[in-house]
Design goal:
This is Phage major tail protein 2. This protein has 1 helix and 27 strands. By secondary structure, the protein is mainly beta. The protein folds into 2 domains: about 200 residues, no CATH class; about 80 residues, Immunoglobulin-like. The termini are far apart.
Length: about 325
């Protein structure tokens, strides 16, 4: 728990509108085979951390025809992570698909006055039988709960009409809570009920209860920078007599490179390693001291060379 609370003032809430025109569409130009999957876009000017995007046409069943929450947007590289995605089992390239695209649906401001998230504890199920020496039980499924908010109403407001439509069709939508510090909580919901009240000397008011139907996702404020990609280069053995056979092993952190170029330092041709290959053998035929280097390419960006262990060949 934080020792310092933040004010609810300036908290904004939005409900996805599935029938209005999308606010952004574009092309997915590349994607990594990793968990989570990092996607490269043709344009990120209308994208932001915490927003859901609908992905199609990549040819990858693990991410196609689904909505994903964007995190860790890199404006310069035009990349972002799809939260909780896993494309490690994909074998083709995105470029082989029918046409990888993304779509961002419109969102309506619900203009909430107050809100409450109620998460229901998992039910304890009694499993005691006459054969047991003591009471036994197991924990049932946890209910994600409900989100309730109240608001003032103009019955002709398009956002209110969209809320009524969401209640009528019963489709799953995304609900965004944007806190004043920039954090975004995204919840998959179904509009469960809408209530409207009024009086002669009162403003028309309403409340809505939304059933949470999946895992809420919290996206940290953009000021919290994700850790940078890094690769460690290890070589074994590091000494011996010529010809000396060595094995280079790479260990990645915070991402997956699309390729590595290995320079062995002995004047031989460079070797190229692609995604999924993290070891490479080489033979030093001549006595001397050599220092191999590795250059990683991550979403089209060439990272600085990382030197490995020095090798002494006698």
């Amino acid at each position: 728990m934080s020792k310092k609370a933040i004010s609810a003032q300036n908290t904004k809430m939005y409900l996805e509108n599935l029938t209005s025109a999308p606010i952004a569409t574009g092309e997915i130009t590349d994607a990594s085979k990793s968990a989570p999957c990092y996607v490269e876009f043709d344009d990120v000017s209308k994208l932001k951390n915490g927003i859901p995007i609908y992905v199609s046409g990549t040819g990858w069943t693990s991410i196609d025809n689904q909505e994903w929450i964007l995190q860790n947007i890199d404006v310069d590289a035009k990349t972002a992570a799809l939260y909780n995605s896993d494309t490690t089992t994909e074998t083709t390239d995105v470029s082989d698909g029918p046409g990888a695209m993304y779509q961002v649906n419109a969102f309506d401001d619900v203009c909430a006055r107050t809100y409450t998230i109620n998460q229901t504890p998992a039910t304890s199920i009694d499993t005691t039988t006459l054969c047991d020496a003591e009471k036994t039980s197991l924990v049932g499924f946890r209910d994600p709960g409900t989100l309730t908010f109240d608001f003032f109403i103009d019955p002709t407001d398009p956002a209110y009409l969209a809320l009524l439509e969401a209640y009528d069709d019963g489709d799953e939508r995304q609900f965004e809570i944007i806190y004043r510090n920039g954090a975004v909580r995204t919840l998959p919901v179904v509009v469960q009920s809408i209530n409207e009240t009024g009086g002669v000397d009162q403003a028309i008011a309403g409340s809505a209860t939304l059933k949470i139907v999946g895992q809420p996702i919290l996206t940290q404020p953009v000021s919290v920078q994700p850790p940078a990609y890094a690769v460690d280069v290890n070589l074994t053995p590091t000494s011996g007599t010529a010809p000396l056979a060595v094995t280079l092993t790479l260990t990645e952190q915070n991402g997956t490179a699309s390729k590595f170029v290995v320079t062995w330092g002995d004047g031989t041709a460079d070797d190229t390693m692609t995604t999924g290959t993290l070891t490479k053998g080489h033979t030093y035929d001549t006595a001397g001291a050599y220092t191999p280097g590795v250059v990683a390419t991550v979403f089209g960006i060439t990272k600085p060379a990382v030197q490995g262990d020095a090798v002494t060949v006698s």
